What we know:
alpha/beta
Amino acid sequence: MAVARGNKVTFDELSKNEDRxxxxxxxxxxxxxxxxxxxxxxxxxxxIKHIDKxxxxxxxxxxxxxxxxxxxxxxxxxxxxxxRGYQEVDLTDASTWKxxxxxxxxxxxxxxxxxxxxxVVLAAVTRKSLPKRYRKMENKFGCNKQExxxxxxxxxxxxxxxxxxxxxxxxxxxxxxxxxSKGAYGALVYFAYKLEDPNEE
Length: 201
């Protein structure tokens, strides 16, 4: 089994079980184009296909099967650029985000300690990437609209794998949305997984 470094790794390293950690190089853009905003239903369908593809890539090796997985959410903040400004955020380039408090913290303090093999960040959402009509969500749930949107995606994905695919590997233990980050620039949806132990029958 790979030794956990508790840091950012590549999806290639995860899929080959060469290391454990979180990766941000399997991001998909939930917008139809850079000039468009995100549609909830299209985003949900795109993420379902993306997760199915990730599972197939991880299980490509005959002796490597996923024992359980969790669908979750976290956040990221902007990177500073100079003394007064912030770096422009690219939804498909995690190097433009500040990751430590979000997926890095989630991996180190939760999934690494529970023996998971990896956490794959699937997609990012910002206020700018959402339609203006979603403004009604602002503060309605005690969080900003990008967080509310990702909470909705998280729940829709959990419901899909629970009730449509009836995948008993889904290990989410609650349908509660959990805590909000309050004030984060962007929200993320992720897929965390643990492999079967080949030594257990």
